[in-house]
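Ops channel
N.P.: pipeline sanity check, posting one input/output pair.
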């Protein structure tokens, strides 16, 4: 996972100016992370920019190639992708279809509008332009 990142944050928290502010129930765990660091870090998955198809990290919200701000998934926070897109039937915010389906297996509400969503009402979006160029039409 993000072991290198967790080490960096744990090391910062162990600095004298922050050390006394840490709750005792977390202090030992943070100290162990600093004492026995595992600095491996998984490479972040790359997905295509929905505008120009440039491969970029899935959590990037701006494409370095075409300089567009990327719409993000309301379920994961990752940028949307062309071939796995849906939108909440109630608020019409975009989401990654497969991730929204997974979410609805454990929860029943949209993470954006908190309305109850029926899994069968989710449909894949075929025309992604509505979400890439919202200024050209209103999203209801």
């Amino acid at each position: 996972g993000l072991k290198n990142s967790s080490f960096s944050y744990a090391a910062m928290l162990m600095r004298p100016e922050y050390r006394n502010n840490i709750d005792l129930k977390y202090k030992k765990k943070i100290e162990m992370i600093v004492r026995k660091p595992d600095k491996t870090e998984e490479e972040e998955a790359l997905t295509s920019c929905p505008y120009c198809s440039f491969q970029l990290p899935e959590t990037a919200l701006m494409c370095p190639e075409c300089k567009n701000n990327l719409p993000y998934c309301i379920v994961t926070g990752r940028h949307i992708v062309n071939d796995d897109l849906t939108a909440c039937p109630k608020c019409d915010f975009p989401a990654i279809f497969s991730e929204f389906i997974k979410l609805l297996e454990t929860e029943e509400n949209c993470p954006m509008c908190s309305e109850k969503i029926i899994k069968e009402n989710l449909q894949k979006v075929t025309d992604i332009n509505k979400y890439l160029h919202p200024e050209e039409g209103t999203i209801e």
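N.P.: looks fine end to end. DSSP finds five helices and four strands in the chain.
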